[in-house]
Amino acid sequence: MGKKLQFYGLDITKFICALLVITIHTAPFIEVAPNVNFYLVQVTARIAVPFFFLASGFLFFMKLNQEGTWKDEENLDALKRYLIRIGILYLCWSAIYFLFTFASWLKDGFQWVMLARYVRDFIFTGSCYHLWFLPSLIVGIVIAYFLYFKGSHETALISVAVLYILGMLMNVYGSLLQQIPIVSSVYKAYTAVFVTSRNGLFFAPLFLLMGAYFATTKSILTKRDAIIGLLISLLLLGLEAAMLRNFHYMNDLTSMYLFLIPFEFFLFSWVVQLQPKEHKIYRFLRKSSLLIYVSHILFVMILTPLWKLLFHTAIGNLPLYLLTTICSLLFAGIFIYAADTKLKWLKVFY
């Protein structure tokens, strides 16, 4: 049996992306350097989740029998196992964060509309705001799977690109859409139920299928070409974000940029070719990136009131980022060690 392929470049990049996600939820430089914070949070950090989708698609489609069809038992079993694993992961972390949600219900006075809103969010936007990645991955991988096997790869990519553009219009230009009579009615009806287009229908499939492309096609780009394309697309991505801010289309949920598409393509083209020397640290990076992603809000929720209780003042954004990052790293290390030794059942959490 051949040696299992290792993609240490992916492990490193996913770990960095997990740390970038923390910046989105803590805005570390908002108090001292707002412009720096803007480009960190609304440009650099926004590459993280699309990369997670791309890497997920890459690793998933590598396991499939490319000669088979969507009905192939081996492929369907792989899809079912994947959906079950992500579903269990989502349920486990939803249960943990529900404790905080339930506590807020008791504090604010429970109303049935709160439960209805929670059920809606659990299905469509995530039981906790950062967990939207998991249900989106579930929906997105199903769409990507069937599109991948049902027609040509080119048709599939065009289809999901159209979905992404539609989602981008709602995510970025929603205020403009609301000024168009007929479109406004459709937009309001959609957001009343689904809240956002940053989900498994509009956002995830494009990057998942891009991952499938890399899993089944030898890259035609050299590292040098990939880096050049990466730098150019990063510049364009920054200009796009600056333009959106200048014309007042930027908000906290703005994340579906047009130039994210070429950026992620060139980034992955480069990363997948990286071959650092084997080291045990990559195993930790591989496992901890998801744990950091799903757990960091836990520490934000704990540290914010704890700091105020101890020091009688609100915690600053930079200390919040640093402490959240440190706690998340320590938690991931302890958790992985426990799961690898005596508490094997903990692996369902990552």
Notable features of this structure?
transmembrane helix; transferase; cell membrane; mainly alpha; 350 residues; acyltransferase; membrane
Structure description:
The structure is a single chain. This protein has 350 residues and is mainly α. The protein has one domain (8-349). Helix content is 73%, strand content 0%. It contains 14 helices and no strands. It has helices at 8-26, 34-44, 48-62, 73-108, 112-124, 133-150, 153-172, 174-177, 181-194, 204-216, 223-246, 260-271, 281-311, 317-340. The protein starts with 7 loop residues before the first helix and ends in a 10-residue tail after the last helix.
Sequence stretches where pLDDT stays below 50 over 5 or more residues? none
The number of helices is 14
| Residue share in helix | over 70%
Strand elements, count: 0
Broad structural category = mainly alpha
* Rg value: 21 Å
